[in-house]
Amino acid sequence: MKQTITLDIPLQLHLLCELLDTSPQAVLQAFVNDVSLEVNSSGSDERGLAVGYFLRCGYGMHRYEPEQVEQMFDGLNWLRFQQYANHDAAFQALQFLQTWYEEWKAKMKTR
Question: Could you tell me the pTM of the whole model?
Fold first, then answer.
């Protein structure tokens, strides 16, 4: 599933990308791939730093304990390894993600 979003790009990022002969879209797509632990991400260091940034920002900590969010990323990383090892596992990946999502949704803190 792909989702298209619209972002307001600060002038600083636009100008920096212009100077560096890249685009804000390329920079942000690479980050999205890294934090999602996609097979086609930038590399292991970049994935680790993106996940670290995500955790450090505290996203979702009102719904889950920090260790649980780390476990979520562990599950996504396991999936990345499976996809890397077996290139035709698209259906199984979708099935895994649906189960992964439903299990984590059931563990969500209630207020």
Answer: 0.86
